[in-house]
Amino acid sequence: MLLPDAALTALRDGVANGATTGGVAAIIDSDGLQDVSAAGALRHGGEPVTTATRFDLASLTKVLATLPCVLRLVDEGQLSLEQHVGQHFSNAGWFQAPSLADATVWQLLTHTAGLPAWEPFFARVSDRSTALAALLLSQLREPGKMVYSDAGFMLLGALVERVRRRRLDAVARELVFEPLGMGATSYGPIDEPDVAVTEDCGWRGRLLKGEVHDENATVWDGVAGHAGLFGDASDLASYAAAWLRLDPVLGSPELLREAISPQVSGDDGSVRGLGWLLAHPGVFAGSGSRGFGHTGFTGTSMWVDPEAGVASVLLTNCVHPHRSRREGIIALRRSFHSRAHGVIA
């Protein structure tokens, strides 16, 4: 199975029109990577992107690390979807109503806990302990309403750490990356030449390469439940293939099917499973309502269609040299995944 020419054209056009400096595209079946191609450069005027280039995966971290760790802990009986945050963090939501203590693991996974979409924790705290303290005192807004929230997955990552008594990077490596042979996937910093450059960060005063782009992840020492992973197309192909075959490394088939089944709908027309995005008219429209996927702020995305037995991965550095260039990634993402899955876009 080869990447359709139309999908490769979408990536190359995205580089040519400035939607991204460079990118890697892959097509996958249940056996793993079937075809991969690269275009563009690691940075403006820099070395070319290769098929082994590692990218800041941004919010793909949610479904690559945090989600499978949570599902494994549920399978092992160390967590349940119905458990409340207060059962693990007794000071969560203290003196607040509604209280974060009452939010469930299921609500965190489905973005219905009532946590805000985004908060600038990095502007108020300086390390992991104070970041967690601030997070546990987050004021809920509309519990039950689906609002995509980084904070919910920050908390899920902290929950994994509290249950396993190890940092999230170690747990994800043990439970997910090593069993699936994902040797190029890890939290940063990454000190290697073949890493895509992201933003010229005004706050940090430097061009970011191999250092997490997400500001809130920096105060978690780069290891957070919502962002922080780096990886390449081959490893993401291994992960997508594991979902295509419902690999027990990720959890029981019954739990995995629940994760990719509709759980909640948003006012924006989106449909979510546990962690995964199942449909969104402005994100994966054209890929079809079948399947599930996720995106990352830096320009990364994946879409998995179990019915067709095919998945696609697109990795780009669309925030280089600054995030105001992100407009083009929406059209590029929709065009690429639609064409990769044989849907005209």
Would you kindly provide a written description of the structure presented here, covering whatever features stand out?
This protein has helices spanning 5-16, 60-75, 105-110, 128-136, 150-164, 168-177, 215-218, 233-244, 253-259, 327-340, and strands at residues 22-29, 32-40, 55-56, 186-187, 197-201, 206-209, 229-231, 264-265, 271-272, 277-279, 292-296, 300-305, 310-316. With 345 residues, the protein is an alpha+beta fold. The protein has a domain at 5-60 and 195-201 and 230-340. The strands form four sheets. The protein has a five-stranded antiparallel beta sheet, with helices on both faces. β5 and β6 (206-209) form a beta hairpin. α1 (5-16) packs antiparallel against α10 and α2 (60-75) packs across α5. It is globular, with a radius of gyration of 19 Å. The mean pLDDT is 95.
Write the layout of secondary structure elements.
Blueprint: H1 5-16, E1 22-29, E2 32-40, E3 55-56, H2 60-75, H3 105-110, H4 128-136, H5 150-164, H6 168-177, E4 186-187, E5 197-201, E6 206-209, H7 215-218, E7 229-231, H8 233-244, H9 253-259, E8 264-265, E9 271-272, E10 277-279, E11 292-296, E12 300-305, E13 310-316, H10 327-340
Antiparallel strand pairs: 1-2, 1-13, 3-7, 4-7, 5-6, 8-9, 9-10, 11-12, 12-13
Helix pairs in contact: 1-10, 2-5, 2-6
Task: Give the key terms.
alpha+beta, 345 residues, 10 helices, single chain, 3-stranded antiparallel sheet, 5-stranded antiparallel sheet
